[in-house]
Design goal:
The complex is a heterodimer of chains A (about 270) and B (about 300). With about 270 residues, chain A is mostly helical. Chain A has one domain: MetI-like fold (Orthogonal Bundle). Chain A contains 13 helices and no strands. Chain A has helices at about 1-5, 15-30, 30-35, 55-60, 65-95, 105-115, 120-135, 140-165, 170-175, 180-210, 215-220, 225-235, 240-270. Chain A is globular. Chain B is mainly α and about 300 residues long. Chain B folds into two domains: about 1-50; about 85-310, MetI-like fold, CATH 1.10.3720.10. Chain B contains twelve helices and four strands, in the order H-E-E-H-E-E-H-H-H-H-H-H-H-H-H-H. In chain B, the strands form two sheets. In chain B, strands 1-2 form a two-stranded antiparallel sheet. In chain B, strands 3-4 form a two-stranded antiparallel ribbon. Classes of the chains: A mainly alpha (about 270), B mainly alpha (about 300).
Chain lengths: ~270, ~300
């Protein structure tokens, strides 16, 4: 009995490690062909004909891809800035304060984009914007920007709120005791302490906006494709490794951003 | 003395009122954006679901409950006979069934994975967790496209199976319900792993040791000790997978082809070829209602869990 006990690992569950490793393999395996075939010499995403960067060049020179990429970045930049500023303000208004009437409603409204299925929001926006487009005849980018800003707010809000909740009021009280005006105390004490959370929030908002397909697909006017909606349109036609090249670049950006966020939040705890 | 106390009280109340005013003021800009592009449109959609569909898309501003009727019933255009809308109900059933199966598959794979991460030494734990987070933040369309590439007739899976001689003809996996199930599980599994891990991280393995000391089998330990204590994480993960699966649009569109529609695609159809905006609005609200019911069930069970923990 005692002998058996010694080789008995308490945390082990039969088959769990195998299933877990299979799961990690399954998470990454499908991405490998996607990346590999973006470097394919031939026109095919199934037949390997040698290494080449020709599809990256093709994507780079494709007018449609170029304008879609610029549109994606511009919309994501503006929307993530708006979302981050607004989320910072809401976070200041909903943390470290006594509960007040309306706080629950603010919570519910901020988190609504996380709860309501994207397709529902997308269709609702389509209806509203169709009415506005009809009434004003304005077909510009404002629709995309405001839609993206709205669904990015909760993603920017979460890390900022988490950061604020971990901050002690003591430093701000000290600043006030030293005759700092509330604004000065905010600028010199609160804001610098919040910055890591704000950065993380802004980056999350940027990634979320950059990746959005469904809402953009329903809100955009003609000729306003972003990279994801352009790709979705291409998938209906014949697929060339150009799509793989674009995917690989987007994949790279996401991985880079997530890694940055990961290390940003790790330094904080260390 | 009592006067100063009263004064102090009123000062405090004043300060508090000032703080509340500041908080509301700070929230206003975000709320305006959210009303314009999140909650406001939903309310307008409710109105639209009670209007008459226009002949070329859009709506006529005439009150009607026809759209809600059409969600479940079909009215023949020639003789006005009413029958059950089989097409809608079968799509609804497919959505619920596939979402349920996705949740189940994600649990079967995700639970051991979360357990594996939680039982790693603290130094390597973050790295495993990071490996789950990366796909989570990667574009959903790209991940769906990756699945499309590997299950195509000339894809990696078929090529491999042909090579080892397991099959002599490529399996037609693309544009089937199985493809959608595979794609949704792949896309949403991090949403199952992360919350289960979060509740396992706080789990005290001394309890497992105690159970073994009392001669519990591994299965008993899992069923009677671990599972009940990480149940909140399992429920949260299931909700987080079930809700986006039910509203999935991109994955069934890319992997299901035109035939295997889910609710999201049926809704889109009403705003495209179907030209029935009120029906689209009513279907969207139906989807939203199912999601809300799922959420309420979740909150109820979370509260019950909290209550039993307190007692």
């Amino acid at each position: 009995m005692i002998l058996r006990r010694r080789s008995f690992v308490i945390k082990r569950m039969p088959g769990f490690t195998l299933l877990a490793l299979a799961c990690f393999f399954a998470l990454y395996m499908p991405l490998a062909p996607l990346v590999v075939y973006s470097f394919n010499e031939g026109n095919n995403i199934a037949l390997w004909e040698g290494f080449s960067l020709r599809w990256y060049q093709a994507a780079w020179e494709n007018q449609l891809v170029q304008s879609a990429a610029i549109r994606s970045i511009v919309v994501a930049t503006i929307a993530s800035i708006i979302a981050t500023v607004l989320a910072t303000m809401v976070a200041l208004a909903t943390t470290r304060t006594r509960p007040y009437r309306g706080q629950t409603i603010i919570y519910a409204m901020v988190n609504q984009p996380l709860v309501v299925p994207e397709i529902v929001t997308a269709v609702a926006l389509l209806i509203l914007f169709a009415l506005i487009k009809q009434a004003t005849n304005y077909h510009g980018y404002a629709y995309l920007v405001i839609a993206h800003s709205a669904f990015c707010i909760p993603f920017a809000y979460l890390p900022i709120r988490a950061r604020l909740e971990g901050m002690d009021r003591v430093l701000e009280t000290a600043a006030a005791d030293l005759y700092a005006t509330p604004w000065r105390a905010f600028k010199r004490v609160t804001l610098p302490l919040m910055l890591p959370g704000i950065f993380a929030g802004a980056m999350l908002a940027f990634v979320i906006s950059l990746d959005d397909v469904v809402i953009t697909e329903f809100v955009k006017s003609a000729g306003q494709d972003t990279l994801p909606t352009y790709m979705l349109g291409q998938l209906r036609r014949s697929i060339t490794p150009e799509i793989n090249a674009i995917s690989t670049v987007l994949l790279g950006i996401s991985v880079l951003m997530v890694t940055l966020i990961f290390f940003l939040s790790r330094k904080k705890t260390a | 003395m009592s006067k100063t106390l009263a004064q102090q009280e009123s000062l405090e109340a004043q300060a508090q009122r000032k703080e509340v005013k500041r908080n509301l003021l700070l929230s206003t800009p975000a709320l305006i954006v959210l009303i314009c592009a999140a909650s406001g449109p939903l309310l307008i959609m409710v109105v639209f679901s009670f209007l008459t569909s226009g002949d070329y898309g859009g709506v006529k501003w005439e009150w009607s409950t026809e759209a809600w009727f059409q969600v479940a019933f079909y009215r023949d255009i020639f003789d006005d006979t009413v029958s059950i809308a089989d097409a809608h109900l079968s799509i609804l059933w497919r959505s619920v069934r596939l979402s349920f199966l996705t949740t189940l598959t994600a649990f079967v794979l995700g639970f051991p994975t979360a357990y594996f991460i939680a039982t790693r030494p603290p130094e390597t734990r973050n790295i495993w967790l990071f490996l789950v987070t990366i796909p989570f933040w990667t574009n959903l369309l790209i991940r769906t496209f990756a699945i499309l590439e590997i299950i195509r007739n000339q894809g990696v899976v078929n090529t491999f199976l042909l090579m080892i001689g397991a099959i002599d003809q490529p399996l037609d996996m693309l544009y089937t319900d199985i493809a959608i199930l595979l794609g949704m599980t792949y896309v949403y599994i991090p949403l199952m792993i992360l919350p289960i891990y979060a509740s396992m991280e706080r789990f005290d393995f001394k309890l497992v040791e105690a159970a073994y000391d009392l001669y519990a089998s591994r299965w008993k330990v899992m069923k009677r000790v671990i599972l009940p204590l990480v149940k909140p994480g399992v429920v949260a993960g299931s909700i987080l997978v079930f809700i986006p699966s039910l509203g999935a649009y991109v994955t069934p569109r890319v992997l299901g082809g035109g035939k295997n529609l889910m609710l999201g695609n049926l809704i889109e159809l009403q705003f495209g070829q179907g030209r029935n905006w009120p029906l689209g609005a009513a279907l969207s609200l139906t989807l939203l209602a199912i999601v809300m019911i799922a959420l309420i069930v979740y909150v109820r069970s979370a509260q019950k869990q909290g209550a039993t923990h307190d007692s």
